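Thread: "does anyone have the structure for this chain?"

Original post by V.I.:
We have the sequence but no experimental structure in hand. Need at least a predicted one for the grant figures.
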Amino acid sequence: MTIMGIVPSQETYDALVGLCYESVLDNDRWPALLDALAAASGRQFGAVAINPPGDAAATVTLAARCDPAAIHAYNADYGAIDPMRELIAATADGQWCHDRRALPAETIAQHAYYQEFQHARGMDDRASIRLDGRDACIYVALLTAIGVYPDAAHDALLARIAPHLQRAGRLYDTMSGLRDGLCGRDRLLDSLPTPLWLLDEERRVAYRNAAAERHTARPDGTLCEYGGQVRPRRATTGRLETAIRQALGHAGAPRAARIAPPAAGGAEILVAPVADAHPHNPLQRPLAAVSVIEPEQHNLKVTDLFQFSRAEARLATKLQEGLSLAEYAERQGIALSTARTQLRALFAKTGTHRQGELVSLLLRLSRH
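Reply from O.Q.:
Generated one for you, tokens below.
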């Protein structure tokens, strides 16, 4: 019998707290957190399991110091008969639950889960905690090797770190939703054939799509990046800086601008405001979009720049042709309220507030 008598230090605790919050922002830090948590708490194995809504059992998605074959066996067969499954689910979030303290000794000695799975693989007692998530439940499990018994100091460490684990799990779940949304936005913007930059209030680059990265790598590209800002590669910066300031609202109401090429056959530059409520605005604050339109891409529609839906693009076209909103609704056979909803979407995506302002912007950007 081995009793783990080394008291975890304050430095160890501080390092674990740091790892908790590093894992929120960096998914790759979870293995390091799990490994460090197992070692500091006198345990020899660790695992993270996720139980999506509607699933009968949790699935182990990450493990430390565990045989991959054991993880496969748990997910395929033994997770479904784990006798602690219901007890852990019923335990309050953020509270550790220990197998040997929660179950009768005869259950530990006779149950197939322990005899065929844990004990057969050299694992003995397990401490588990449920971390509350918006959708799925996240579980962290730490296990001892057979014959190893952590002492009260190790259990005290688990109790101290529990609130940080709980908070990290909740934040990670929230950040996962944001990461998924940002990945979707990036895929959409990367699909555009034209270089596109999003600039923040300080005129610094907050985002660039794949086409913009390729453009800046070209020695003959119209725009480049210098000091975190977008600059003309050869022309003076005055016209572009003025257009960006206008789009950001630094000189009155935000408005778009088109910078014509200096010579026939050259590329033109579009600068447009991106409202904080725009669905593809990653920072949720006013931005400026800068895009380069090469001669071979002059057929790009303004609707591509603002990511209008088909219905929104159709309404935008008819408004430019002079139709009133009521006339458009009648010709399309839709309710006037539906047309108004589409118009509000056009306002949100272009950063405009009135129909006349919207039409003026679209006509100005469409003029070649």
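V.I.: this helps a lot. The first helix runs from residue 10 to 25.
O.Q.: and The CA atoms of residues 46 and 327 lie 66 Å apart.
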